[in-house]
Amino acid sequence: MVKTKEDVLATLDKNNVRYIRLLFTDVLGHMKGMSITRSEIEQVLEEGQGFDGSSVEGYVRIEESDLMAIPDLHTFRIIPWEVGGERVACMFCDIQNPDGTEFDGDPRAVLKRALRKASEKGYTFYCGPEIEYFYFRDPKGTEVLDHDGYFDYSTIDEGTKLRKKAVVALEQLGIPVECAHHEVAPSQHEIDLRYQEALVMADFAMLYRFVVKELALQSGAYASFMPKPIFKQNGSGMHTHMSLFAGGRNLFFDKDDPYHLSKMARGYIAGLLAHIREFTLVTNQWVNSYKRLVVGYEAPVYISWGRRNRSSLVRVPMYRVGKEKATRVELRSPDPACNPYLAFACMLTAGMAGIDKGYQLPDAIEENIFHMNEADRKRHKIGSLPGSLAEACDATEVSPMMRATLGDHIFNTLLANKRLEWDRFRMRVTDFEIDEYLPLL
């Protein structure tokens, strides 16, 4: 990994790289960027690259358009395929105002602020997302490339070949892959990245989506991270494993606890459960996200936690003897179309609130909640996630924690964008309505 400007320049020249992409994301998590040439990079590494932010979703108004992209040297990588016959490198950037202050519309800055607060207490936040996606024949429909199921393995399926190409490319980029496999639905796949510090993992998640989509397009197919693209099939999730460390010690582990969870881990889970409705707008930010969060398709709906219970919102993976560092909690509601910088920041903030304020963790639920009736859930005091984008907006809008975490700029921009999306959706006449009502009414 490069550490200095000199390292970057030497690596560019050694590999005959002529173009460098400067990457960042908009508020919704779409990758943005600009390309510069080798001759310009020395000055950019010293001063940053100016750009017009007025056309980037959630950034600035036209009269406030000037921004600076400051490359993060630690994110420097060479893209493992040629673009137009040329070698291309990339770096993620932090976005600043022209006066050098942090731009408050930069999602990466939101996560960095949350991580600084944890660091001030001596904590390092680790994440490991399980990112699922689909391969389709083209972006015009949902014709699948295979009809395999969970953990099926075939070397001849197009989807399997594409997934293997993505794994190779990720590892060539220096992104460690833990495992890869077919998921439950036809043409649905998952590549799991090795646990990393949260900022590193958020950058990796952005590159993951870029690599998977780019390689699919190069092969004449289409990869989609849409949460629920196919009716009556499982949607795609981004189950996220989390833990806090101090030095090399996992602060979530306690050998004497029945679940091997420390008091801190229990507080963290309690924080997630207490605030999940407030930040679901960030982890599940699209109208389509709520087509996945329904009973019957393995996605969580009810606010609870457990160990073996995969109907719970938060799951604690079983402890393996001698693997104290692997003790973690898994939040199962996020989907792969979220902005990972904002999502990780909200998860951390909610969990830290539970630790700092001493939230009490309710009893674990090990029964299948999907089989409970309303009276059973009420007896166990099990609440529900928002059922629609509009309900998620309502929960976020009244949350002081969300406003503080995102900052006024992103908080207001995100809500305005999502309210508009909901209005556009609710005005649309769907095929369901035509099929159900036209013959009847």
Outline of the structure:
The chain has 12 helices and 18 strands. The protein has 441 residues and is α+β, with helices and mostly antiparallel strands. The protein has 2 domains: 5-103, Glutamine synthetase, N-terminal domain (Ubiquitin-like (UB roll)), CATH 3.10.20.70; 112-432, Creatine Kinase, Chain A, domain 2 (2-Layer Sandwich), CATH 3.30.590.
Question: Any chance you could write out the topology, listing elements then pairs?
Answer:
Elements: H1 5-14, E1 17-25, E2 31-37, H2 38-47, E3 49-52, E4 66-71, E5 77-78, E6 87-96, H3 107-120, E7 124-136, H4 158-172, E8 177-182, E9 188-193, E10 196-197, H5 198-218, E11 222-224, E12 238-246, E13 249-250, H6 263-283, H7 289-292, E14 302-303, E15 305-306, E16 314-315, E17 329-331, H8 340-356, H9 374-379, E18 383-384, H10 389-397, H11 400-426, H12 431-437
Parallel strand pairs: 1-6, 15-16
Antiparallel strand pairs: 1-2, 3-4, 4-6, 5-6, 7-9, 7-10, 7-11, 7-12, 8-9, 12-13, 12-17, 14-18, 16-17
Helix pairs in contact: 3-8, 3-11, 4-5, 6-8, 6-10, 8-11, 10-11
